[in-house]
Specification:
Length: about 425
């Protein structure tokens, strides 16, 4: 066990050559600093990229119609599918594990021809016909007013919710928006809300130029009948949309006489699968961070090992005297290992503290300059700190093991003869 005399001996040994001790300790200090910083930077990238998913329903997918690639049951190759409201109802009835199925339609586009008019101002905007639950599948901040409701759906109200760039394009500064009217493809709609997409994952400019109207109103006003262009589908908690989606495809293929092996007829984007791939990538980066950090740390441990060998050689006579006075091999070995551990742990903890200071500095800069794309809140968990401490203890033991073994192999008589 440690006692005051043992501490005095260890400090005296480390202070005997301060420059050598400092340079040796720097290897471990730098290795553990790099390890923690690499993991913090990896976490910052993970936080930045996955924050785009944020509150987004990550267990969702989007499905749209494409052209068939295989002829089947009288349906020729190259025919474009057309979804109907009845398809949505069939999916909802046959797959109870689904939480939301939101049919969608769209027209126009912010880069196309002008399709929205307000007074003398016109603009080209993306128009979506949606259901109220879409806001839960793609969360957005309602800046003013409200989003769509089921009373709007049932009554087929001509109301709309508009994005920030629509407001900029059609309204003067400080002009009242809520309660005003805009004309979409010749049809008047009352503005009941304005929004901003939260954690955009697509084209943020397009989303800012978006107008939402009730799905039923869209189909009636623009003569879409019971057509559905695409669907946003979310699985219930505890179920994976990735494991369910093939059942959804099978229902559509059966209803539309699509060949069972025709995977091109149905387009989709599985957000849960994409989220899993991104997390997998960052898990690999974390492993790489550990690997690189441990390699750098190993160079510091080798340095401590070499220095401890030199220290043992310099203290050969002292070791001989101790052995002659009755010190056991384990007492000698324990002293060398303790010196190695103290040097390793002290330098390592300084490295952890320095890395924590750098991480704090990075977060302070990010807070002052605002959000940085794909990078946010670099940090490490307590698990990383515990792992770093474990690595330090193991490194200290390994660094002192060879010198300690060499010290215990000396015969007291031979050690005392060395001048």
């Amino acid at each position: 066990m440690f006692n005051k005399d043992r501490w005095d001996e260890i400090l005296e040994a480390l202070n005997a050559n301060k420059v050598r001790t400092a340079l040796t300790a720097f290897g471990v200090f730098w290795g553990i600093t790099i390890l923690v910083l690499l993991l913090a930077l990896t976490n910052g990238l993970r936080n930045g990229v996955t924050s785009d998913f944020g509150n987004f329903a990550t267990n969702s997918m989007f499905m749209w119609s494409q052209r068939t690639s295989i002829s089947y049951k009288g349906i020729p190759k190259g025919k474009r599918l057309q979804y109907k409201i009845s398809d949505v109802e069939a999916i909802r009835a046959e797959i109870p594990e689904l939480k939301y199925i939101s049919p969608r339609n769209s027209l126009g586009g912010y880069q196309g021809a002008n399709n929205v008019i307000r007074g003398t101002k016109t603009g080209a905007f993306q128009i979506y016909g949606d259901y109220p639950e879409f806001i839960k599948q793609k969360p957005m901040d309602i800046l003013e007013g409200r989003f769509l409701s089921y009373s709007d759906i049932n009554a087929k109200r001509k109301i709309c919710v508009i994005g920030p760039d629509v407001v900029k394009g059609l309204y003067d500064k400080d002009e009242a928006v809520i309660g005003s009217y805009i004309k979409i493809n010749g049809v008047n709609f009352k503005v009941v809300g304005t929004f901003k997409i939260t954690n955009s994952q697509g084209d943020s400019e397009e989303e800012a130029n978006t107008v939402f109207i009730p799905f039923t109103t869209f189909n009636q006003a623009f003569n879409y009948g019971d057509r559905v262009s695409w669907m946003a589908i979310t699985a219930k908690d505890g179920f994976s949309i990735t494991s369910i989606k093939e059942r959804v495809f099978d229902i559509i293929k059966s209803r539309k006489n699509v060949h069972p092996d025709d995977d091109r007829a149905i387009g989709h984007f599985d957000r849960a699968e994409a989220f899993g791939r991104i997390n997998g990538l960052f898990n690999i980066l974390a492993i790489v961070g550990y690997f690189v950090g441990i390699l750098i740390l190993a160079s510091g441990v080798i340095g401590i090992n070499n220095i401890m060998l030199i220290v043992v050689k310099e203290r050969t006579k002292e070791i001989g005297v101790r052995r002659a006075l009755g010190a056991t091999p384990w007492m000698i070995k324990g002293q060398i290992l303790q010196e190695s551990l103290i040097l390793t742990i002290l330098s390592g903890m300084l490295g952890v503290a320095f890395a924590a200071f750098v991480i704090w500095g990075m977060n302070s800069v990010l807070d002052s300059v605002g959000p940085v794309e794909n990078f946010a809140n670099p940090s490490v968990s307590m698990t990383v700190v515990v792992v770093a401490l474990t690595i330090l203890v193991l490194a200290g033991v390994l660094a002192g093991l060879i010198p300690a073994n060499r010290a215990t192999k000396m015969k007291p008589v031979d050690a005392l003869r060395i001048e």
